[in-house]
Write a sequence for this structure.
């Protein structure tokens, strides 16, 4: 991306398809000149003005609204104007060509690169980097929950909290530098206790914010959940029960499901794609064996695996066998929920109540009666850091992964910093604070390099 702010950039801000209206943006030093050329006058600042638009060969090609924003009070911080024209491709082409005809060697007018309007806004101090990213996310947000989570970033409270934390770090660093460079006679003793207390408060905020961002992160993906287990344990019945529709064939014969059956469910704002798979068993049937292979492959790449085991005959050694099987398939147990199935039958047949092995990541269900299904749904959501009865007050924010990673790293560094403060290792505390500050400033973009910025903004829409 060019860093030449002398260039005036133009872009279609609405979709490049024929439509009733289109919005076309111009930003940079030639904006006024372009405007005067097209509509014959400079409209009042920030007032929507009706005008006739003339092409470079002085023919009227459309009539519409135009809004001029005098820099620096504009989105980009530069002179900026927005044309509202009829959205036919011919009109848009003439408007583009007319703008481009105003390009001169020292006053270039050119098409904007993706994200270039936002990059200029950021470079001109109109917004922090995380806010520019939030706007780009807002454009791509497909659900109401995600829009809410992004707006929590755009309302600036997050940015203010980061700045407060940053200021605290800067002040403490300045104090520490003085103590490192001057004697204690001159500066007095470092008061570790109030410092530690203060940092611990910041750590609490960081922890809450990271959790809120992890919840937000969960909103943006389709989560894949594979249902696996031996034949006939009730995988397809569970699939149908979870989806509340008849997607998989259920039959008392073992080996019913062969191909992977997929179906999507919206659960507590999450988009979940369930995959019912072929029951696992030794088989000479090549078609069935291929189905099993595909099912296990899907389990390996899924975000979560429901490993179904028939409650009847279940004991600790069966469970251990299952755990060893997961290991052999390279399926991490952290992404597995053991689902003990057909618990209704088990209850009927087991006279003395043998206890079902107790595991944190296990749930007993009956897909037939519905027992345990609510609990299972809650476990799925908890796995993705959400709960089914997510009320609106629960803090969910949406941040880019790079920002969440920085918050996590900042939390780790400040935790180490507390330990170093307790042992009065001031050099180490100062270094921890420096590193923590770098993490924060990368989020807001107060310190960043051109290469990183180029990468970030190139993923934006053109015209934004
Ligand atoms: N009583 C009872 N029967 C169940 C339950 N879940 C499944 N079944 C029965 O168990 C049999 C097998 O169910 P499926 O859902 O087809 O089992 P599966 O694991 O998909 O089997 P494959 O596709 O062959 O691997 C069917 O007769 C179901 O009606 C349950 O919770 N309770
Ligand atoms: Mg099945």
């Amino acid at each position: 991306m060019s860093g030449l702010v002398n260039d005036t950039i133009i872009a279609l801000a609405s979709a490049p398809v024929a439509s009733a209206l289109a919005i076309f943006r111009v930003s940079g030093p030639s904006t006024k000149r372009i405007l005067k050329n097209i509509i014959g006058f400079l409209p009042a600042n920030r007032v929507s003005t009706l005008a006739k638009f003339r092409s470079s060969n002085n023919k009227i090609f459309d009539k519409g609204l135009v809004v001029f924003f005098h820099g620096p009070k504009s989105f980009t911080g530069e002179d900026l104007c927005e044309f509202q024209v009829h959205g036919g491709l011919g009109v848009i082409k003439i408007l583009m060509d007319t703008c481009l005809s105003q390009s001169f060697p020292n006053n270039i007018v050119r098409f904007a690169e993706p994200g270039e309007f936002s990059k200029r806004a950021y470079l001109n101090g109109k917004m922090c980097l995380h806010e520019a990213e939030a706007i780009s996310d807002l454009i791509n947000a497909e659900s109401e929950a995600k829009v809410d989570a992004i707006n929590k970033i755009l309302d600036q409270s997050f940015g203010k909290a980061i700045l407060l934390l940053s200021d605290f770090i800067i002040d403490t660093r300045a104090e520490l530098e003085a103590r490192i460079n001057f004697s204690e006679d001159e500066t007095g003793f470092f008061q570790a206790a109030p410092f530690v207390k203060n940092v611990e408060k910041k750590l609490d905020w960081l922890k809450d914010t990271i959790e809120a961002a992890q919840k937000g992160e969960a909103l943006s993906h389709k989560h894949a959940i594979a249902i696996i287990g031996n034949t006939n344990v009730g995988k397809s019945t569970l699939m149908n029960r979870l989806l509340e529709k008849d997607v998989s064939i259920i039959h008392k014969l073992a080996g019913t499901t062969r191909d992977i059956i997929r179906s999507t469910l919206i659960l507590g704002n999450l988009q979940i794609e369930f995959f019912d798979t072929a029951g696992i068993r030794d088989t000479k049937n090549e078609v069935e064996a291929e189905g099993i292979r595909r099912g296990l492959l899907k389990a390996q790449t899924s975000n979560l695996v429901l490993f179904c085991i028939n409650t009847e005959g279940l004991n600790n050694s069966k469970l251990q066998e299952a755990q060893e099987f997961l290991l052999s398939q390279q399926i991490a147990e952290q992404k597995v929920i053991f689902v003990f199935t057909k618990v209704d039958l088990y209850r009927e047949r087991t006279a003395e109540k043998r206890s079902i092995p107790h595991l944190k990541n296990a749930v007993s269900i009956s897909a037939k009666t519905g027992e345990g299904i609510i609990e299972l749904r809650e476990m799925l959501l908890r796995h993705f850091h959400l709960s089914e009865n997510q009320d609106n007050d629960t803090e969910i924010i949406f941040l880019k992964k790079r920002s969440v990673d920085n918050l996590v790293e900042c939390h780790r560094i400040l935790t180490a910093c507390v330990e170093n403060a307790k042992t009065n290792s001031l050099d180490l505390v100062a270094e921890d604070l420096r590193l923590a500050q770098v993490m924060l400033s990368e989020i807001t973009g107060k310190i960043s390099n051109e290469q990183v910025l180029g990468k970030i903004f190139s993923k934006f829409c053109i015209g934004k």
